[in-house]
Amino acid sequence: MREMFEGMEVIRDAEMRRYTTLRLGGPADWLAFPGSGQEIAALFREAGKAGMPVTVIGHGSNLLVLDGGIRGLVIRVEKNMREIRRSGNRLTVQAGAMLGSAAAAAAEAGLSGLEFAAGIPGTVGGSVFMNAGAYGGEMADVTVQVRGVLPGGEEICLGREEMDFGYRTSAVRRLGFTVTEVTMELAEGDPAGIRARMEELNARRAEKQPLDVPSAGSTFKRPEGYFAAALIDQCGLKGYSVGKAQVSLKHAGFLVNTGDSSRDYLELVQAVQRIVKERAGVELEMEIRILGEETRG
Ligand SMILES: Cc1cc2nc3c(=O)[nH]c(=O)nc-3n(C[C@H](O)[C@H](O)[C@H](O)COP(=O)(O)OP(=O)(O)OC[C@H]3O[C@@H](n4cnc5c(N)ncnc54)[C@H](O)[C@@H]3O)c2cc1C
């Protein structure tokens, strides 16, 4: 198996709790950190020949990895693919760059449009996959081109209109490809004003969100006509816990973790869903993506 990863940074039996912001998850059989789209394509081709399943992750800020871990190969795009290039009003960013770094580069260049993204702790690739958004902005507003690699190893390039962005979803999800590079179109602005807006939004985040405790952000999607956090709070669930997984006392939309059990976390998610359904009649759908298996078979 080692030949498949020749010259590449790779870890065997990698504890996924080290690679997710929730700090949960058992071992991935193999965890690779490719440095380019070509390396990702090569990994897919080799894994395909070996009949090995492949899972792609970014910063792991929207993931619940189960206790049994992930079989096969996990590709972490974040570490070695972080280049950011500017050309006029456009930023072309490798998928592993953090959104906050792209927002900082935009501010530095006097480009406005990414202020909303400054505090979202994910990669540009994961954020395009999720169509991440906050404070009235989302990735769909700025993304003009997305390059990637299909599971067969072929390259793909989609324009804005082909990206099919929706609430926390995009064509990346439907087509199942790995994002390698994203081009964003921004508008000229005043660097000091852009920075001030970013600081203001980050201060609002710090005031409202439990940023000092492991979480994956908002656990649930916004149900139509409601706010998940308000519903959970109204149902008396602030502070409700299963083991060391808890509904945050600071922000009821965040289910936080101070323990080491994905099973507890998932039980908490299910209990909140059940109680909100019983008491408020609303179905909460998870925004966080679940990966892996409950036990290592
Ligand atoms: C404190 C906190 C605050 C947050 N605030 C917000 C917020 O305001 N708004 C918001 O939308 N989200 C928020 N999030 C959630 C999260 O940061 C975003 O969803 C982010 O875009 C996920 O990026 P990631 O790189 O961490 O993706 P991951 O969590 O690693 O992966 C998420 C999904 O994307 C896929 N993926 C990742 N990289 C790629 C790639 N290169 N190609 C193809 N698929 C890929 C994965 O397979 C997975 O299905 C928050 C999270 C935390 C912890």
SSE topology:
Blueprint: E1 9-15, E2 27-33, H1 37-50, E3 54-57, E4 63-65, E5 70-76, E6 84-87, E7 90-94, H2 99-108, E8 111-112, H3 124-130, E9 133-134, E10 137-138, H4 139-142, E11 143-149, E12 155-159, H5 171-175, E13 178-185, E14 187-188, H6 191-208, H7 228-234, E15 241-242, E16 245-247, E17 255-257, H8 262-280, E18 289-291
Parallel strand pairs: 2-5, 3-5, 4-18
Antiparallel strand pairs: 1-2, 6-7, 7-13, 8-14, 9-10, 11-12, 11-13, 15-16, 16-17
The protein binds flavin-adenine dinucleotide.
Residues 21, 56-63, 77, 95, 120-123, 125-127, 129-130, 132-134, 172, 178-179, 209, 211, 215-217, 289 line the site of flavin-adenine dinucleotide.
| Total number of distinct structural domains | 3
Strand content: 25-35%
Name every ligand kind in the structure.
flavin-adenine dinucleotide
- The name of the CATH topology of the largest domain is Uridine Diphospho-n-acetylenolpyruvylglucosamine Reductase, domain 3
Q: What fraction, in percent, of the residue positions are helical?
A: 25-40%
**SS-based structural class?**
alpha+beta
Q: Enumerate the spans where pLDDT stays under 50 for 5 or more consecutive residues.
A: none
Compressed to H and E, one letter per element, the order equals: EEHEEEEEHEHEEHEEHEEHHEEEHE
Estimate the mean pLDDT confidence. 96
Main sheet attributes: strand count, strand direction, barrel closure: 5 strands, antiparallel
